[in-house]
Write a structure and sequence with these properties.
- This protein folds into two domains: 246 residues, no CATH class; 248 residues, 4-Layer Sandwich (Nitrilase/N-carbamoyl-D-aminoacid amidohydrolase).
- The protein has 522 residues and is an alpha/beta fold.
- The two termini are 22 Å apart.
- The longest helix is centred in the middle third of the chain and has 28 residues.
- Helices cover 42% and strands 14% of the residues.
- It is built from 16 helices and eleven strands.
- One of its GO terms (cellular component) is plasma membrane.
- This is Apolipoprotein N-acyltransferase.
- It is a multi-pass membrane protein.
Length: 522
């Protein structure tokens, strides 16, 4: 196909989209967002973005009003999040009789709320007068800022941000060491939106710009990442961890007559082969279904999984001592020595709304999805734990692994590795556990720290500080693996400067776009 035909085909498609109105326009946007979500793990069909995002730009160009400009991002975002977050419904089906009615609110309502941020990006692009060639750079920069805002506003929920599609390419993922999730998102937005320029006035310069953004940017990122992977060989600490994945069905985990059996099974999996040479055994979130801080008998039994001279690192709930007021409940990580002594504790700080607590409980007379009627209390936040026989570690419990830049606590010493314990059994054999794993892996790349991950039922894994996989237990598997803990690398630019680098790049993209307002048609 020659150059003229490329421009003509793009112009015809843009005109057909521009002619849509009413429900056809809205339905098309939802469909485009849903189609684009196929680029997310585990499918990772990246080419779909080369249709989904240019079409969004063309529909934005044709938006007659500010309200319509907002609607372009909002309707597209609804489709993106509905497909990207459908797996939330699995958690509500664990007790369908009690929580099944919440599925439309959880999937469609949450998607509509999150889509507001993308609608704000398209509206802001219209309000600041971005047009012509530069409108793509402006929209990409504002899209990145909107996703960053989504990561902390209303407690934050950065799940399935645009940059997460690059989990499929380890070389490109290395850009996360500089720009984090937001830098990867800016790269994705620029590269995938750029083909929209083909519907503008034909010119060799415009074609070259599209090629530079759509092919050149990812290629440069891939080349730089491949070079980094080649120049930084894997290195090991010599300490072996045993990661256990017990695969306990979520519906039976807290049944009174099954809890002892779950604990015994976890111990048996841990001791299935000799514990000699093992520095620590790692169990997932809430793997011990007892309040281990007060339950000496079950804690002593769990300690049978601790290797001689080593530790058991396990998730379990923690409550206030008997008689202490007010009664409080925490989702915790315990470090337990042989014999049952608690060496260290970490309490989850970033709790899941409606899963671990009910926001506005005075207004919403509903129960949280997890067992019990008491809301969990948040811990103090990210911290570095110093454990005997192990390098200092940054613990992340479940949901906490999705937040960029929130691995290390302020004023805390830099850890040598990240430990992520989780219970993805809530989400069945869905896309959710794959997306959660991808988020945790990116935290390792961003911070330059190896990551050990123990999940109740997939996906447990070990990654080195460049995101290279060392070991894995797949979704739905039961068992354990032994892996030598990798060494960290020097602190990364993202680890040192945090979000300031990608936000500066986003602002630079906006400024460049506003400076280049060449008209679309001649």
């Amino acid at each position: 196909m020659n150059t003229a035909r490329v421009f003509t085909a793009a112009r015809v498609l843009a005109d057909r989209l521009a002619a849509l109105s009413g429900w056809r326009r809205r339905l098309t946007l939802v469909g485009l967002g849903a189609f684009g979500a196929l680029a997310l793990p585990p499918l990772s069909l990246l080419p779909v973005l080369l249709l989904s995002l240019p079409a969004l730009v063309w529909l934005f160009d044709a938006a007659p009003t500010r309200r319509a400009a907002f609607g372009v991002g909002w309707w597209w975002g609804c489709g993106w999040f509905i497909v990207g977050l459908y797996w939330i419904s699995y958690a509500l089906l664990v007790d369908a009789a009690k929580f099944g009615w919440m599925i439309p609110f959880a999937v469609f309502g949450l998607s509509g709320l999150l889509a507001v941020f993308l609608g704000a990006a398209t509206l802001a692009t219209r309000l600041i007068g971005a047009r012509g060639t530069g409108r793509v750079a402006v929209l990409a920069g504002l899209w990145t800022l909107a996703e960053w805002l989504r990561s902390w506003m209303l407690t934050g929920f950065p799940w399935n941000s645009l940059g997460s599609v690059w989990d499929v390419s380890l070389p490109v993922l290395q850009l996360g060491a500089i720009g984090g999730l937001w830098g990867l998102g800016l790269l994705t937005a620029l590269a995938a939106m750029a083909p929209a320029l083909l519907a503008d006035r034909p010119s060799p310069r415009r074609l070259a710009l599209v090629a530079l953004l759509t092919i050149g940017l990812p290629l440069v990122a891939w080349g730089g990442g491949a070079l980094r992977l080649a120049l930084v060989p894997p290195a090991e600490t010599g300490l072996t961890l045993r990661v256990v994945q017990p695969h306990i069905p979520q519906g039976t985990k807290w049944l009174e007559d099954r809890r002892d059996g779950h604990l015994f099974d976890a111990v048996a999996l841990s001791r299935g082969t000799s514990l000699d040479g093992i520095a620590a055994v790692v169990w997932p979130e809430a793997a011990a279904p007892f309040f281990l801080n007060l339950d000496d008998a079950h804690r002593a039994y769990a300690a049978l999984a601790a290797p001689p001279g080593g530790l058991l690192l396990t998730g379990a709930l923690r409550i206030t001592p008997r008689g202490e007021i007010p009664f409080r409940l925490w989702n915790s990580l315990y470090a337990i020595a042989p014999g049952g002594a608690i060496v260290a504790l970490f309490d989850k700080a970033h709790l899941v709304p409606f899963g671990e607590y009910v926001p506005l409980r005075w207004l919403l007379p509903i129960d949280k999805v997890t067992n019990g009627s008491t809301d969990f209390s948040p811990g103090p936040g990210p911290q570095t734990l110093t454990l005997p026989g192990l390098p200092p570690v940054a613990p992340l419990i479940c949901y906490e692994a999705i937040f960029p830049g929130q691995v290390l606590g302020r004023g805390q010493p830099r850890p040598d590795w990240i430990l992520n314990i989780t219970d993805d059994g809530w989400f069945g054999l869905s896309a959710g556990p794959y997306q959660h794993l991808a988020a945790a892996r990116l935290r390792a790349v961003e911070e330059g720290l190896p990551l050990a991950r123990a999940a109740n039922t997939g996906i447990s894994a070990m990654f080195d500080p460049l995101g290279r996989e060392v070991a894995r237990l797949g979704l739905g598997e039961r068992g354990s693996f032994d892996a030598v803990l990798p060494r960290p690398v020097a602190i990364t630019p993202y680890g040192r400067f945090g979000d300031s680098l990608p936000l500066a790049l986003a602002l630079a993209s906006i400024a460049a776009g506003l400076a280049g307002r060449e008209g679309r048609r001649g």
